[in-house]
Automatic annotation (TrEMBL):
The active site is at residue 95. A monovalent cation. Ammonium or potassium. It is found in: Cytoplasm. This is Type III pantothenate kinase. ATP binds at residues 7-14, 119. Keywords: ATP-binding, Coenzyme A biosynthesis, Cytoplasm, Kinase, Nucleotide-binding, Potassium, Transferase. Homodimer. Pathway: Cofactor biosynthesis; coenzyme A biosynthesis; CoA from (R)-pantothenate: step 1/5.
Amino acid sequence: MANLVIDIGNTFTKIALFEGDKSLKFEKFASVTIPALKEFISGVKIDRALISTVKKSRGEWELVLASELPLIYFNSSLAGTIKNHYQTPQTLGPDRLASVTGAHQLYPGTSNLVINAGSCITYDWVDAEGNYYGGSISPGLNMRFKALNHYTSALPLIAAEEMGREEGDDTVSAMRSGVQNGIKHELEGFIEVYRKKDPNTNVVLSGGDGNFFDTLLKNSIFAPYIKNEPYLVLKGLNAALQHHND
């Protein structure tokens, strides 16, 4: 029997099948269709499904899925391994809660700073006992590039690239330096704050830009406590579903 877990984000929908802690299959969709979903789960006996979504409306494929197997939506009451001290739990993004749930499951007995690099960059810290008090939200990589273009009359819309030097020597490279080095220093600052709080804190990177951030960090502070977990939210959802089944 397998668990089906689905993470509906602002840009992509990520879907995975798990048997226990073992990942069987993963796929990312810009847009989910009923035929694509049925093909993804074909040949697998599914026990139940869990969806985490940042969207308020339900897609047609979600209704079809709910008619065919037990389907529940992730919320704070399902994160049983986490003691959630957020003042407004109803406004906490499910992806953030699933991320700290996943980090606590993967690296038990230690504190974890989860940096989720998606449309926004979120910083969430969970201590060794599973206490979660909150975190921080800042603009993501692409959002910063889009803002430079949108709010000025002369700056072009550009994409991230690896840089050979710190400073830019033309407009485009100066924009990359400002955005990418700005994020790097932001990451380093948050890491320093939380590792002063607990020197044993792991730094767990996730999200669509997680690999890029991993490169940014390891160019300056390569360390074994930096973990790259691209499927962290999905692993957190699977951990929550397993705990819910117990």
